[in-house]
Amino acid sequence: MFLKAGAVSLALLLASRLLGLVRESAQAAAFGASGLADVAVLMLTLPDWLAGVLASGALAYVLLPAWAGQGAAQVRASQRRVTVWLLAGSLLLALALLLLRAPAVDWLAGGLPALLRPQASQGLAWSALALPAAMLAALWATRLQHQRDFTGLYGANLVVNTVLITAIAGVGWASGEQAITWLGLGLLAAMGLRLAWLWRRQAGAAAAPSAASHQPLALPAPPVWLWAALSAGLPLALPFAARSIASQAGEGALATFNYAWKLVELPLLLAIQLVATLAFPAVAAAFSGGVAPRDGGRTVRLALALAWTLACAAAAALLLGAPALGQLLFGWGRLDAVALERIAQWGAIAAWGLLPQALIAVALTVLAAQARMRMAVAAYGLGLLTLLLAASWGVRDGAGLMRLLNAVFAGVAVVVVLAMGRDALRWMPWRAMVIGFAGLLLVAGASAWLGAAALGLAGGLAAAVLAAALVLAASWLGSSELRQALQR
User: Fold this and answer.
1) pLDDT tens for residues 171-201?
2) What gap in Å lies between CA 33 and CA 335, rounded to an integer?
3) Could you give the C-alpha distances from 286 to 78, 281, 294, 297, 419, in angstroms and in order?
4) Are residues 290 and 435 in the same domain?
5) Are residues 252 and 321 in the same domain?
6) Is the CA virtual torsion 308, 4, 289, 208 positive or negative?
7) Which whole-number Å values give the CA distances from 10 to 139, 156, 272, in the listed order?
8) Which domain holds residue 274?
9) Which of 281, 334, 422, 467 is buried most, with the most CB atoms less than 10 Å from its CB?
10) Are 416 and 364 in contact (CB under 8 A)?
11) Are 444 and 319 in contact (CB under 8 A)?
């Protein structure tokens, strides 16, 4: 039963992420790498990004432990209290965004020409209108997570992306303000239908087990919420900040950077972060006294071995296959050859950042299990400050920003690994890491010698699959830790 539920959840997660890629592909086909594409990307992603930074992670970190073992009546009562504060805050934020649209355009898409500033301002107005629904959806999704209704949770993403793809497909005949209006209506429809889906799943899902106590559930103090929001929001802020900085380079730069980041986002979410999520229960048990310390270290080592190997395999695939993947996803519409070349180049550079993010994902599960997230928050905060300082020094090129992001992730990885404790280096799966990295270096050399762009669509895709398979096979044969991780 659990295997079936897990398979269904994984299938829905994969479907939602793939449909998200289809949505990005539809945007590229409809708008290319134009200023209008920048406006579309910004307005369609801003509400959920703000909800993710300010609410989604914090709600999960704070409410899920608080709701554990509570009765259904207590959960509903605390949810109503949070709803009031969440809607009040989101309405104030939406009002601020409406009033400050002009400076917001400068901050978030500064490379837009003057002729497109009115459309960008209009797009931010639609984003502001959609923001309260995005915030409320974050709370309701947390409730479904508490009820372990992962079908409802991931199905909500399918609803949003389906509606937005339909809206994007409908703007082929429109331009300028007509296109923004159509997309804005589609955005509101997507948010509304997602809320309807979440409400229905919330009402129909099984209630949490009743607790003996009927006392009102006391919510954590504001500092707890603040640390939770920072822990969850700062990692999301880094690529968004880099995208906004890249937009200063000129028209279409924001959309191009966004599409390049999508090449690495899928393996990051479906491989690396999924491994960390699956390992979290065992890690939490290991560091709460549930098993012996040696077993706790072994759990961390196996999770690191699997996450690192998948990161090396994904990076190898991107080094050889980025031009082919870019052409497959974004090359069938209005995106020009220059933008496609930039997407492939920037995506291949960003692939190296998957390695430190593999270490970060697992290390954060250890720190979260021990409620020691302050070092991680400080590292991410310093990384964000580094990006902002680079912007003030004139760094705007997408390739340079991708390299800077890689360096920031590497720095964060060092901090969070060391923050795990004095046994952190002993827990590292050195053999698996050396084998995976050596395989990646061989693929990087082959990519430089062959020229990934010269492989073509079919050849590039085949080379990407082969490169990933070779890294995985070498790691499987050479590392007992990886074999053990896959047996668990």
Assistant:
1) 865 555 688 999 999 999 999 999 999 999 9
2) 6
3) 30, 9, 9, 8, 17
4) yes
5) yes
6) positive
7) 22, 14, 14
8) 222-488
9) 467
10) yes
11) yes
